Amino acid sequence: MSHPSQTQFRRADRLASQKVSEILAIGARASALAEQGHRVIVLGAGEPDFPTPPHVIEAAHRAALDGQTTYTPLAGTAEMKAAIIEKFRRENGLNFAPDQVIATAGAKQVIFNAFMATLNPGDEVVIPAPYWTTYSAMVDICGGVPVTVACTASNGFRITPEQLDAAITPRTRWLMLNSPSNPTGAAYGREELLAILDVLKRHPDIWLLSDEIYEHIVYDGFRAESPAGLCPDIRQRTLIVNGVSKAYAMTGWRIGYGAGPAALIAAMTVVQSQSTSNPCSIAQAAAVAALTGPQDILAERRACFQTRRDFVVSSLNKIPGLSCRTPEGAFYTFASCEAILGASTPEGAVLRTDRDFCSWVLETAHVAVVPGAAFGVSPYFRVSYATAQAELDAAMARLAKACDMLEWPT
């Protein structure tokens, strides 16, 4: 009996170099180990362990009961836009009109909309590394060319004006800055930003994408500056990316927002009209409550994150072979494991890369961390301390014990 031949699935060329995030793959392996009965501590997720504030949930409930369950205006409700505008006025000293802001299904969509609306094949985007993995993937998918610039720990994982100047070509369309940063927690101070903006002043065709999603999670009195507030000329070609996910513990609500020149926002709105349409109506009502309601929770949670940061940095620096700078913000550390490479495990395997190290730690100590290679710079690993202190205590103890098991070459 003959069978009809099966048609082979063919992926689009734009996905040739793309795959599921390495962070998700590590999470899947951690889940598999947990199903086998191991108690795995996952320090890989960029998600606060705090609950969404009660008044935000109540606002969503009221919106649903009031019938706010239909389509909304494409770029956000009038209330959502007003809340975004007021947030920028109150916190950043920036004034925007309604046609200069957009609400989206997460901050990631702001970036995707912008690249889809502006990049032609071959256009380049300068991305300081280490970088959040999705940055380069989105540039690729939208037809652009990611130009990654390796930033050293000695400069706080920040791009220098000289590095930026050297990376710029006639095809450069955007510079991406993420401050505070995922994965390093590094942040740019006022003088450092001004030096970067001075370079951009000499290149009037290059736009700036400023990802400020972690602006409220900063420590030791550091103030997160928005580049748009430092230079009027650069503001005319700056897109600010933000959202409620990190500061207000609303990752699952999927609300981000962007602010920039009206022409750019209009083009991004066209992209959104042919992809997701408006963000969730109920989630928008929740986000309005987050942005306009009590803000004291931000300081409370920031203090908790700082306590965790100090503990994790101190613990990592006490482990022979590891070293970790103190980040200015976010809820990540980016530690070096360079001194450990070349060591052998009790099983005789040699750890040659940061991926080897992270894989061995997961399999042996059942602690999930993410190798720096996933973020474009090795040999490092990222620890997310957005988890309970008890989990961090146990994870650092396991990590120290695992490293103590290694044998060093003589």
Structural category: alpha/beta
Shape: globular
CATH architecture of the largest domain: 3-Layer(aba) Sandwich
Largest sheet: 7 strands, mixed
Mean pLDDT level: 95
- The helix content is 25-40%
Which residues sit in consecutive blocks of at least 5 with pLDDT less than 50?
none
Output the strand order for the largest sheet: 2-8-7-6-5-3-4
CATH class category of the largest domain: Alpha Beta
Q: Report how far apart the termini are.
A: 66 Å
Number of strands: 13
List the helices and strands and how they pair.
Blueprint: H1 22-35, E1 41-42, H2 54-65, H3 78-92, E2 101-104, H4 107-118, E3 124-129, H5 133-141, E4 145-150, H6 161-167, E5 172-178, H7 190-201, E6 207-211, H8 232-235, E7 238-243, E8 256-259, H9 262-273, H10 281-292, H11 296-317, E9 323-324, E10 332-336, H12 354-365, E11 367-368, E12 370-371, E13 380-384, H13 389-404
